[in-house]
Amino acid sequence: MKPYEITYRVRSYETGVANRVTLPTLCNYLQEAAGDHAIELGFGILELQTRGLSWMIARLHLKLARDVPWGGDVRLVTWPSGLKGRLVALRDFRLLDAQGVEVGEAVSEWLTVDLAAQRIVRPAEAFQAVVPPNVARVPLAASDGGGKFAALAKVDATARILVRRADHDFNDHVNNVHYVEWALEALPAVFRARSVRELDIVFRQAAHAGDELESRLEVVDADQCRCAIVRPSDGALLATAALAF
Description:
There is one protein chain. The protein has helices at 23-41, 45-49, 125-130, 176-185, 189-192, and strands at 4-9, 53-64, 73-84, 88-96, 102-114, 119-121, 157-162, 198-203, 212-221, 224-231, 236-244. By secondary structure, the chain is of the alpha+beta class. Strands 1, 2, 3, 4, 5, 6, 7, 8, 9, 10 and 11 form an eleven-stranded antiparallel β-sheet that branches. Helix 1 (23-41) packs antiparallel against helix 4 (176-185).
């Protein structure tokens, strides 16, 4: 199977104060490329929706070697990379610049959800058929990642979040990239001017418009933080993330 390739030019509104591409923008690039490739292979969102199904991301682990400036190119190379168990579809990514120098790599985990029943089902046979055995994986795939924790050891910083209707996507719940934004919202000042070099985020429950959430952050050491997105009204844990700088 030939990997899918697409290049994104970093635009002004996709950068932060340091004129470099933001982490949420990179996550949007990954999401868009994954969706485009799925459509090309015959199991895109629109195709699944005709059967009452949809893809929902369960985890994203992204590691970056360097920043990309405003006006620079990010070339994504992505491919379905197998199944984990019977229910989790895997997709890997390589991120390159215009000269083909590596910017980073990522692995993602996806679930197929029956929208009416709100339950996980096995990925479409079309997905299983296009993934050859022993498909290549990016090196990051061997990592267990740091986002799979149940609770913070302590809370060093918090940010209050009100979920907006504009945060919803085609699945009628909050798009995954907003959880990344919320994790960054709680960062203490000492981390804000630094680039995130690694993100491992696990999506556990969906948020909806009107929810009042709290982004809680634990400083692990001078280069690492952990974040939990919670809904205080019922104590639900919506996402956990590990960030390294």
